[in-house]
Every structure is written in structure tokens, then in C-alpha cells.
Request: fold
Amino acid sequence: MKRLFGLLLVVVVVFGVVASGCISGGGETTSETGTSKTTTATEKVTLTWLSTQLTPPEERAFVQQTLLKGFTDETGINVNFVPVSYTDMVTRLDAEEKTGKVTIDVVGDLHGGMDYMASKGWLMDLSGMPKLEGRTFIGTFEKYSVINGKKVYVPWMSATYVMVVNKEAFKYLPDGLTEDDVMKGTDKWTYDAFLAWAKKLKDSTGQPQVGFPAGPKGLFVRFLHGYIYPSYTGYQAKEFDSPDAVTMWNYLKELWPYVHPSSTTWDAMSDPLLKGEVLIAWDHTARIKDAITTKPDQFVVVPVPRGPKGRGFIVVLAGLAIPNNAPHKDEAWKLIDYLTKPETQIKVLEKVGFFPTVKEASGKLPEGPLKILAEGVTAQSSTSDALVAMIPNLGSKGGDFKDIYRTAFERIVLNGEDPAKVTSELKPKLIGLFTEAGVEVP
Amino acid sequence: MERRSLLPYLLILPAFAYLLFFVGYPLVQALYLAFTKNGALSLDTVRRTVNNYYFWSALKNTIALAAVIVPIQVALAVVLALLLNKAFKGRDLAIYALVIPLTISDVASGLIWYSMLSPYGFLNKFLMNIGLTSHPIYFFGYQYRTREFFVIVLSEIWRSTAIVFVMILAGLQMISKDYLEAAEVFGANYWTRLRRIVLPLLKPSIQSALIIRTLFAMQIFGVVWILAGRDVPVLAGEGFYQLMEIKDYGVASIYALVIAGLSLLLGILYVKFLKAEYLEVKT
Reply:
């Protein structure tokens, strides 16, 4: 019996060793031999580009089959595009920097992530690299890409969240608000005017006509912390439980009866807009792009309304950086050069709806749906009362951050709890996240 | 002698190794994630879970859904099986038709019902076209959580009653005609035969069907996610949300463990209280 048990154990262990080898070893070895072989044996270089952006299958296919093919044809450099999650990227870069065996040539990530990686000292100072000719980066983006005096990344793509209006809705504008006010984002285009409009729309059509992506995978929390919070309190989190915040929550409570009830099940607003379920919607530019490209005559993109403290909106900025000790720095720079060319940026906008970070690209925009989108975005960013919010970088705590706003919304607006009580209960947890991550409370 | 006693062990070895890697290892990992913090034993994750706003309603909803769905399904399946156990023309066709939803996944079933009942879905369009209503009836959204709950129940009954039906029909067909004929000879009417012979003999099938359905009900997720999102939070959905959106692996593990624990408990209760009785043994 003892012998039998021993035998059993040996077999299990052997199987375990073999199986685990098969499971974890495979992917790594191929990519490693791939890079080292190319550098030593032939002239051909294969860059390794890790990106947290453009990861959905369709976008990934576009990068690999269209975007990078153009680059390889032009320069003869191959690129291995590796879409990863933020956590995976940070873990891998951390390990590579610690062991001094860096295999990553380029990283593509959002501003917050770049900020974190720069603070860890993993990213190269790009100020010594040759100038990127024929493009002017948008000032704000350029400013953000310099962290602690170091040029950490090159602004790559940007995105934001906007309002889409079905032109039909302009028939029901409330008194004192004109189409021009809404299109240009004047002082009259306020959250109160928005409420009056939503009310009039429901009264006239019999249906709630405003929609938000408040489903489980929808981005409605971004509206809460990046739009309406700054507009009412001036901050995203700092004044979470202030009297101004209570006013804001009471406003949302008042607005909600005019919001389509299915909003809590919607993850993206493109479909409800196209189906005519709502006439006004707020969402990420990439998630409403379909509606505009399908029916460009029907929809316009407009700036969001303003609140007492200004017009809060989020700018999502993605950048490209080169890690310290990257194996092919010059080739990596060539890739960054290619990806930020105005022509390439237009291609990205056309395919995935991320906006260019260089001014020259706007002149190259074709007439049509994309122009509608780009004009709306430009109108929003050029409003005089703009309060730009960046998505805070809390690393792995980013989910908890969103959950706090989501919980506050559910308890206050949907469940009718007292805003002052709920926000004061949740605030310590919210501030705790920032303290733990060592990030300033925005 | 030695060789013969070795054989059974060798035969179960592949299954054992499989279980060890694909069940044992993740289970240990889940326990580790749930009950440790920075490598030391800690109840911090548990505290985080039970203090989460959605935890208790997820637990309540999961149990409520199972409590509503499973009895309806079993009752419906017994009735259907009794009806279809008789020989009649087109019986096979009827059985095929009943079993078709078995081939549909829960997500697909959710999508079918969503497109049917959404404000601009078939049902609302039909009602508005025949002039019965002027505005769509809402079935989805936080304000209509009770309706969402019943749409979920409807969708689940539609999709998964078939599996219960198949098990009970198989059980019915196993019942020897001799018992029924003997009862008839002694003058027992249909109801007596059903109550005294058919149902007691069906007990093992009903028990298996109950166990399988209840355990699946504990894992209910896809259909809820499609129809109600987080308006009606359920355990598996919250586990998924914590893992994918919040990236809190510890809390997600606890949700998984709660589902496992509940399933285990219910399984034990069923086996204990619904022990199959065999007429031969009793008499």
C-alpha cells in the first residue's frame, strides 16, 4: 500500500512538472528567442510593443494587419504588438527593469499609467531624441507628457466623452435655450437648461428621451466623477461630500425621471441612439461613433453642459514611451514617429475613433461623420469655462474608485437615500484609495 | 494479487490528476486569495465582501431566483412528462420541440428575451401596432426590477425546463408497467396510481433533477447580466464584476466560494431529506 501511494505521488508530481512546463513556458520562450535571434543573426529587427490601448479583437486586427503593415513596408522593421492589461504591463516592466533584461521596446498606455511608470523611473527621457518633423502636438498634451521635468512620453491618441443629440430633439428646446447655445457650448448651456430640456422632451413626446450608459460595463461613472462633480464642486473627489456635492446629487435625482429607465442596462449608447430609443445621450466618443457614421445627417456632437463651477469634462490621453534599457531604442523611436504622423493619426481616428494629438491632422479630416465628431470634441475642448479632468491613476485600485461613485449613485439616485449621509459615509474610503496609492486627491 | 489491487488505482489516476489540477489547485488558490493578506491569515477580504453594498442583495437574489425557478420547473416538467409518457401520434415531434431550448445557451436565451421585450422589441411593437398601447411597456431598468426579475424567471423556465423534463421522462419510462397494471386490477384510479406508485418511484429522478437545477441556479449569471445588468445583482455576476471591473481577486474568490458552499450545503440537504424510497425495500 505504501509503495503504491509512493508511486501515485511520483506520477502526480511528474505530471505536474510536465503540465506546468507546458502551460507557462510556451509563450515566453518563443517571444524571447524571436527577439534575440533577430538582433544577432540578421539585420531585421523585431520591436516588442506593449499596449493597454487598442486591445479589443477588432482594433487589434487593425493594428496588426493595417497600421503596422504600413510601418514594416516603410522601414523594414517588424513589430510584435502585444495587447495587455495595465496590471500585466506594469508587472512585466517592473520585473524586466529589476532584472536588467528588458525586452520591451515601446509601451503605449494612458497618461495615468505613464505617470506611475515615470515615478518608478522605468521610462527613458525622450528629450534627447531627434525631432519629430511635420507635426505640432496640442499644447495641453505636450504639457502633460513632461513629468517632473522629464519628457516621458509622446502624446499618441486622445479621447473624451461627449453628448450626442438627435437633431429631432432641437424641436423641443426649452425657453431661453437655442440650438446655437448647445452647439457652441455657451454660458446658457447649463445643467439646469439640460434638465428643462429633458423635461420638455418627456412632456412633449411622452417618453424619457435622455440616455446614459449606466449598465455594468457602461462608462457612466466617468460622467459622475469627471463631468458633473467638477462642474458642481470644482473637483473630482476632494469635495465629495460638500454642500455643493449634495446640490449636485439632488440635481441628478431631479433629472433621473427624465432619463430612460433602461439606462441601467445599457453599456454603450450607439444602439439606443440608432434605434431611436433616446434623442440625447452621453458616452465615450468611441462608443457613439457607430451612430454617427451610420446616420451622419441625424446626429450632432455637442459640448457637455456647464455647472456652477464650470464645464467639467475628461480628456483621455494615451502616450507612447520607451523603457530604460530598451533593446532597440532608435527603431522604437521610428515607430513612435510613424504612429504620430498626421496621416497615421487620421487612420486611427477613422478606424477606432481615437482623436489625433497633432494639430496638422485636423486639416486632413475628410468631410462627413468623422468631422461631426471631431468638431464636437474641438468645441468642447475650446469652451472658455473648460475644467479638464484626467482619470486619476490609482493602479489596481482604479476599480474601487469607480465602484464608490457607482454605489453612491445607486444609493442616492436610484434608491433615494440621503446624499449627505451616503457621501459622508463613502468619503473616507474614497480618500483612503488616494492615500494608499500616494496620489494627490483631484 | 499485488497487480490486481494496483489496477483500480491506476484506472482512477487520470481522473484524480485531472481533478487535482483543474479543481484542487484553483480551490486552494481561491482559499488563499480569500483568507490571506500579504501572505498572512486575514479576514480583511471577507470584511470587504460583506460590507460591499451589493453582497447581501446578490445573495438574496440568487436564493430568491432559485426558490422561484426550480419548483416551477420541476412541477412543469412532471406534468409535461406525464402527458408525453402516453403513446400518441406526433409524440416524438412534441418531445423534440420541448427539448430544443436545451441547445440554447443562457446568454443567447437572455438576448432572445431582451429583443422580444425591449421598448422597441417585438412585443411592444406588436402591442402598439394593434393599438393596445400607445407607449412601449418597460421591462428593463432599475425602476422595474420586479419586472426584470420575472423576465429572468421566464427566460430560465423557457430555456432550462427541458433538462428537468428529460430526466423525469427517463424516470417515468423506467417504471415497470406491472405495478400500474396490478394497481388497476385492484381498482385504483388514475390519481391513486399517480400518488401511490408513479410519484414515489419517480423520486430518484426528481431528486437528481432538483440537485442539478438548484446547483445551476446558484451559478445563474449570463441571463441576468444580459437582461438586468447589476439591477438584480446575483452572486456569480458580482464575482465576475469584482474580477473583471474592480480587479479585486480576493473578493471575487469569496463570491466563488460562497457559491460553492451554498451548492454543497443544498446538495447535502437534498440527499438527506429526499432519500429515494424503493417500494420493494419498504414492503
